[in-house]
Amino acid sequence: MKYFLLLILGGLYFEAGAQDYCSKVKKQVTNQTMFSYESPYDTTTVPVIKISRSFSSDPQLEFDNFSMSFSIYSDLQEFFKKNPDGAGENELRKFTIEFDDKSKLVEDSITVVYEQNNDVQLMLRTYTMDLNVKKSNTLSSKKIAKFTISNVERTIPADSAAAYMGYFKCIKDTHKVEDKVVEKNPDEGW
Asked: Which residues contact 188 (CB under 8 A, 6 or more apart)?
């Protein structure tokens, strides 16, 4: 009976700790109408994932920027290496997230930002993904197992995957996610 109570108390402690993600999210409010949220991240930890959102409740200045940035360090030589098809690393434009249930989110045409680190042998690759309703629903309900930027793959440790999912849910719940609709102008032909 004593061990059973310890298991229950341990489970409650774990559950309370798991719900503590929202308190770690950085929040900034300007003029009571503009809000910014950012997940904790450490640029020295590899890989780096940052979840950020800023929005306005002012009808005169309405915006909602919700994104997730993925960064990985790789060897500088990998950047210049040619692939079998002759394309260089900086010409590859694919991003993939694989979730713990083996499902995937794939974007075939992305812009990767490259930055050389102080260590001349390392290159930082970053992709920032804008989030819509479908992507945000997926990311708030599944844990990221690994992601790939331009053929360089990184695995996410299970505890980090749980934290990213927790931060994501907290930031998503700050404001209703809406798809941005771009209306076509018939005069411009697009």
From this structure: none
